[in-house]
Amino acid sequence: MYLENIVFDAHAPRELGRFWEAVVGGEQLTDEPAGYETRFAVSGGPVLDLCFQPVPEPAAGSPRLHLDVAGGGAAIERLLGLGARRSDGDGELLDPEGMPFRVVAGGESRLAAVRLESADPDRDVAFWSWLTGWVEVPGAPPALRHPSGLGPTLELVPEAGAKGATKNRRHLDLRLERGDDEVADGIAERGGRELPELWGALPWRSYVDPSGNELCLLPARS
Asked: Could you state, in order of their start, the residue ranges of all structural domains in the chain?
């Protein structure tokens, strides 16, 4: 299996999708009422699809999956011109739907890092390494990177507050490959669990990691 999607719940998927597409330099894949998708690809490294799905409910609580955009101070004016807004948070901007993201110096690609809040980062970095196949890189907080050594890091950061019952408005999807038959057992053995099918039968299965963060497993491609 491999990491395939970063999924955004959105009131206006097209508008939010086009914003993030411009931010990361993505390539549009889908523009339909059911959602907007853009592809962020690093030559020789990871390919991640950013998927924006229509969710009319208002955002509740603070996000637990955060994005860092490379460019430092020089990028801020460009981002404001794309539709970002300034935030009260130190070094943060807000996307068009009011969700915060950071602008950081350096970075090999426009998307510098995906930061996931964790109740136990050292525990959860092992869980996500097994799940994605990404490898741990030295430094703090614990972080993973695609085996190519290219592209954004996936960082496990201390949570700002315990995960509540509210669904996170950003989550990660993984794609199964043929032969990935024991993944559900592996998730349970490592402290995760499967979620009930609250929205009826779906072609994917929903889980949470040991800290309660949602993730989806998509079926293997035919």
From this structure: 2-218
No. of H helices and E strands in the chain? 4, 16
- pLDDT at residue 89, rounded to an integer: 67
Comparing CA positions, the residue from 113, 100, 120 lying closest to residue 212 is 120
CB atoms within 10 A of CB 74: 9
Bridging pattern class, strands 135-137 and 111-118: unpaired
Query: What one-character-per-residue DSSP string does 87-138 give?
Result: -SSTTEEE-TTS-EEEEES--SSSEEEEEEEESSHHHHHHHHHHHH--EEES
Please identify, in words, the CATH class of the domain defined by 2-218.
Answer: alpha beta
Query: Among residues of the chain, what percentage have pLDDT more than 90?
Result: 73
Indicate the pTM of the whole model.
0.94
pLDDT of residue 107: 65
- In the numeric block, the tokens 């990660």 are attached to 172
Lookup result for tokens 């508008």: 15
Distance CA 18, CA 41 (A): 16
CA 202 remoteness from chain centre: 20
